[in-house]
Amino acid sequence: MNDLYARHRAVLPDWLALYYEDPLEITHGEGRHVWDAHGNRYLDFFGGILTTMTAHALPEVTKAVSEQAGRIIHSSTLYLNRPMVELAERIAEVSQIPDARVFFTTSGTEANDTALLLATAHRRSNTILAMRNSYHGRSFSAVGITGNRGWSPTSLSPLQTLYVHGGVRTRGPYAALSDAEFTAACVEDLKDLLGHTRAPAALIAEPVQGVGGFTSPPDGLYAAFREVLKEHGILWIADEVQTGWGRTGDHFWGWQAHARSGPPDIVTFAKGIGNGMSVGGVVARAEIMNCLDSNSISTFGGTQVTMAAALANLTYLLEHDLQGNARRVGGLLIDRLRTATAQLPGVREVRGRGLMIGVELVRPGTDEADPGAASAVLEAAREGGLLIGKGGGHNTSALRIAPPLSLTAAEAEEGADILERALRGAQ
Question: CB under 8 Å to 378, separation ≥6 — which residues?
């Protein structure tokens, strides 16, 4: 056991997960690469859990942080804050939510917590609809609506949560149906559920489930849900903490794959917008955002240095069309991985869109999850110079691939080669 790992175990919680049998200390990064304390270089296909969205040590973001830190780092939301207003204006514009208001937090967990507060206060209901296999954060209320046993340490909750079918296309009772039949069955299930309960405040859903293994429903499912929800006055919260800002390639927001019935009532965001800085937030229609009848502030949400970083990051992303790059390079990477794994019996599925790709592993000859293989592939990929993530529903058996959106075609090919060798070695 190395010294830093021993010190970590002595003072930090046992449940604070670490990857790898010999945990990795990352000391610096540049572009799509990071280096560890021993000088080893890795191609980063996980970006600090989808958080380093554009690139490590992006000069534009580094410069913005340095210049802002030289002026003032923080003053709280009790004072006017130019970087916060400027970023809110940009986000309100790209959100496509009419008469949008933006509230900044420090994390996706806090953003979802705020969205739940707004929805329950606006609707005067403490019942929430959530998706099976979902993940929404680690606060008390976010854990209470998370539909993934591996990330839900208690059943206690301030909310009554009802779980809906539809977040996982290729597993569950409707997996054998066509896309249209799958959507129709999930809609009928939702209608039936609403017939047995008082009207909930909101449905919260990740357009692509992140911790759940990068699973998603057929395009249009949440639009069909929205039509039912509107009949009951129920709000739609899109959790875009992992899917936002063009990561899926086809769309700027994940919800746009389900846009037939209009934008969500509330959108939450975090992770990639700060490119590693602690930025999260909520976008909602003014009537929803302004429904609270007591004072509230955010001490660190919207602090100047993080807002400066996010502004520079968003500007870079838009000016360099990183959404388009995610679509092009992500498409190449998905095709390459599907070809490489077509004859591997332990690979059940390569799924995803853009630079949000899941590789689900099973025990060869069965449909059973294989978490041991996922851990082995993670280790082998690291040995080959590639960092990836993992996740999944009933058992952690999906590899999660989410590089910075500036990934080049050559880097995608290099990463795919390393991952193919790791997968073959685990068979």
Answer: 19, 20, 388, 390, 399
Pull the structure tokens for residue 229: 């929800």
15: its two tokens: 């449940």
CA dihedral defined by 332, 338, 341, 343, rounded to 10 degrees? -130
Q: State the residue for tokens 């296999």.
A: 133
Residue whose structure tokens are 């997968």: 423
Closest Cα partner for 244 from 230, 260, 257, 226? 257
pLDDT digits (tens, 9 = 90+) for 124-153: 999 999 999 999 999 999 999 998 988 888
Contact (CB, 8 A) for 103 and 282? yes
Output the pLDDT for position 225: 98
What's the predicted TM-score (pTM) here?
A: 0.96
| DSSP-based three-state secondary structure for 98 | coil
What are the counts of helices (DSSP H) followed by strands (DSSP E) for the chain?
13, 15
Residue 17 CB neighbours (<10 A) = 7
Q: Are 355 and 329 in contact (CB under 8 A)?
A: yes
* CB contact at 8 A, 298 and 104: yes
